[in-house]
Amino acid sequence: MFRSGNEQNDVTATNGADVEASLSLAAVDSGRLLKELPREKLAWMLQKMCEVRYFEEKAEELYIRGLVHGTMHLSIGQEASAVGSASALRPDDLIIHHHRGHGHTIAKGADITLMMAEFLGKEPGYCRGRGGSMHIADIPGGNLGATGVVGSGIPTAVGIALALQMHRSDQVLLCFFGDGASNLGEFHESLNMASIWKLPVVFICENNQYGMSMSVRRSMNIEHISTRAVSYGIPGETVDGNDVLAVYQTVKAAVEYARSGRGPALVENVTYRWRGHSKSDRNLYRTQEEIESWRQRCPIMRFKQMLVEASVMDSEEVETIDQEAKATVDRAAEEALTFPEPSPENMEDEVYAP
Ligand SMILES: Cc1ncc(C[n+]2csc(CCOP(=O)(O)OP(=O)(O)O)c2C)c(N)n1
Ligand SMILES: [Mg+2]
Asked: Which pLDDT score is estimated for 90?
């Protein structure tokens, strides 16, 4: 599936409305994966996707109750992209993500209570409550964090991957960003440098159809963002980002390619965010019908159906995993709400301002 340079002009797939018709994609064999992957791994994928969904629904509830400082960006509807990608990694591999990063953080194995604490600005949180929703890093867990500056993670990823190469490490870095970020100059500069130095980084573009209110169909004249890889002589694939197994299979191939020293790859996960860009979004740029058509392709619902139809588990087992994820998030929120906030005396600790 992953070949270098100019061999790969048969990149196929989509960035648009008629997803099911146009996602022909790299040959994805979900049936084989359902048979071959250990049941525990499949159960883990479902559990993490449910935890992402419930975490963000809880985040919304806490926001409405006035308990959250600042804004937040929800990835409800995009869970398969985060979980499918992260499940292709070894535990010691790394990620760097972006402003819509709750899913990436959970998928990389974050402790939900510490994450909720950070989200609520509490002292025991991952960044001692100084970072909040957009800046959750878990360095020991291999999550190198995010910034609110769109695209900033992409050149940073090149630097981190260069460090991995210089240390002769066989770790791989996944770099998550959005369709909007792929229109920035630093995206192009970074892919070029990563390519010429054959760095161990996989660029994951989460094409959720919009950068704020700007549709991809108005902001670029290509059908598949992954075709941009051709300019840098690296492999590029577009995948149905709402199919967790398709994402897993594609990103795994890219990770193996990078780990073997052959260099970076670009994977485009085609997906959709159900909620607004942030809490100030009034959804005036898209129709309810469009949102509803993507809700019908809910990645969690689809994966549950696949698991039951393939007799990996029965519907009761699937719902038990779902309810355990909900209980984990509910417990985490209850506990995190009792945690102390940073005090005025120590508030500036670990805050860097040049
Ligand atoms: C350099 C920079 N420009 C603009 C913004 C404002 N902004 C925040 S998110 C965003 C859209 C990003 O879209 P995309 O990369 O597709 O990610 P998504 O929000 O869809 O996940 C913009 C323009 C910013 N934070 N940083
Ligand atoms: Mg986007």
From this structure: 98
- For ligand 1, mutation pick of 81, 150, 207 (most atoms within 8 Å of CB): 150
Q: Which tokens sit at 286?
A: 């898209």
Cβ of residue 176 lying under 6 Å from some atom of ligand 1: no
> What whole-number distance in Å separates Cα of residue 105 and Cα of residue 119?
12
Give residue 329's Cα distance to chain centre: 19
Question: How distant, in Å, are the alpha carbons of 21, 114, 117, 206, 347 from that of 122?
Answer: 46, 9, 5, 30, 11
Neighbours of ion ligand 2 (CB under 5 A): 178-179, 208, 211
Q: How far away, in angstroms, is 177 Cα from ligand 1 center?
A: 9
Residue 24 pLDDT > 90 = no
Read off the pLDDT of each residue in 271-276 and give the average, rounded to a whole number.
Answer: 97
Is the pLDDT at 23 greater than 60, yes or no?
Answer: no
Taking a C-beta distance cutoff of 8 angstroms, is the pair 200, 254 a contact? Answer: no
